[in-house]
Amino acid sequence: MKFAILAAGEGSRLAQEGVELPKPLVKIQGEAMIDRLIRIFNDSGAEDIYIITNNLTPLTQNHLRELQEADPKIHIIIKTTLSSMHSFYELRQIMGDGKFCLTTVDTIFREDDFRRYIAAWAASTDDGMMAVTDYIDDEKPLYIATDSDLRITAFLDSEPQRYISGGIYGLDERSFPVIDKCISEGQSRMRNFQRQLVKDGLRLKAYPFSKILDVDHASDIEKAEAFLATT
Length: 231
Prior knowledge:
- By secondary structure, this protein is α/β, with parallel strands linked by helices.
- It has a single domain, classed as Spore Coat Polysaccharide Biosynthesis Protein SpsA, Chain A.
- The protein has 8 helices and 13 strands.
- The chain has helices at about 10-15, 35-45, 60-70, 85-95, 110-125, 175-185, 190-200, 220-230; strands at about 1-5, 25-30, 30, 50-55, 75-80, 100-105, 105-110, 130-135, 145, 150-155, 165-170, 205-210, 210-215.
- The strands form 3 sheets. Strands 1, 4, 5, 6, 8, 9, 10, 11 and 12 form a 9-stranded mixed sheet that branches. Strands 2-3 form a two-stranded antiparallel ribbon. A two-stranded antiparallel sheet has the order 7-13.
- Strand 2 and strand 3 form a beta hairpin.
């Protein structure tokens, strides 16, 4: 399976709170977040790993180039984009067909949860499988409405549901016409792309993780450390 990482955000909140490293290089348990994802992806049998980062952080660019020299499966796009949805659109241009798992760079999860999720997505006949969590510690969570079989029926901003999006997306080339449509219509943000998937009739399944958290603030680094220490 292919894997992809959205790492083109500026990480402005972390910088404002005194974190000097670019977000992808922030260390959790002594390991840069982007290195952790690449390691987990390789442990999950990655055929290729696609990464987009912005052109504002030479430190991240240089780090990724060093990783690429050691691992030819890594493919890099360096481009500042308007949103995570636009970042996915750029990756879509080079990924080719087949199933893939796309994550945001600051998504923290248990590795055993992830392995089970990848196995479930690999065996699935659905159009997509989205990781979800009932751990809600987000300023603007994206709530996910499902039926009794965990089929996703809606992505909601302000109507609380049991689960929220975990920032891990299992998709394949059937999603490409949808992202192309979103870009052509001037949409932005991954949540609007996900809404369009539902509107266009793609069959999406929710896959619950025990817990997923994002590193948006300096205080989240400590939360992530404590979370992974219990696994």
